[in-house]
Amino acid sequence: MKTALMCLAAAALAAPAAAADSKPRWEIGVGAFATYSPAYYGASQSDFGGFPVIYLAYRGDDFSILPNGLYDVDAGNEKSVDFGLSVDLSGSVDSEDRLGLGDIDYVGEIGPEISFAIFADGRTRVEAAVAIRAAFEWDNGYIGYVVQPRLAYLTTLSPTTRLGLSVAPKFGFDGYNELFYSTPGFTAGDGYIGTDIALKLVNDVSGRLRLSGEIKAISLSGAENEASALYQEDWNFSVRAGFTYAIWQSE
Asked: What span, in angstroms and rounded, lies between the C-alpha atoms of 33 and 52?
């Protein structure tokens, strides 16, 4: 992903969770992250980038928005079934990274996610989840939708540190794949794009400051459109590292 400006506001994640007594009801935070990631799934070109973030958290009795802050590993969640909002940002690909076939502007994805606990004891959670996200390109509007199931292992390493490991295949439909993989001689079809294998680490330095990082391997073998000239690699790799800081918390 190219260098980008992101503003993750209240809609970044919403869940009907009760607020923790030790956390403020309202919180506004900022942060910054550095990334190294492929131009798109299957690209031979990867780039360094960075982006700032702004977030709003609300911890209500019956409804919460980002109750655990931004970029959390929710190992302490004991709910059998949980609902949330899944978001992703991709795109901003130069034509030269796509064999001269034109630029792709930023693509935002947003939609519901439901997760089911296979095991949860307050310190470790094993869950199966599925997200369905509508995708929108900045200049062209709706471009299709993505279905992404996920199997995750989340665990508490210490009172302030949590680790997450997940496997999440990604499928594109209703024209989503055409944006990234169609060429003059090839029309991309709906179906499997690739699988994210991610390792996440979160450390809460204090009640305001959080450090987080993620290493991701993306397997692309067997993709629906691997015959496209724009599928150039069987594996991609990405890294993200950064921090968030709560600049204001309510009493």
From this structure: 6
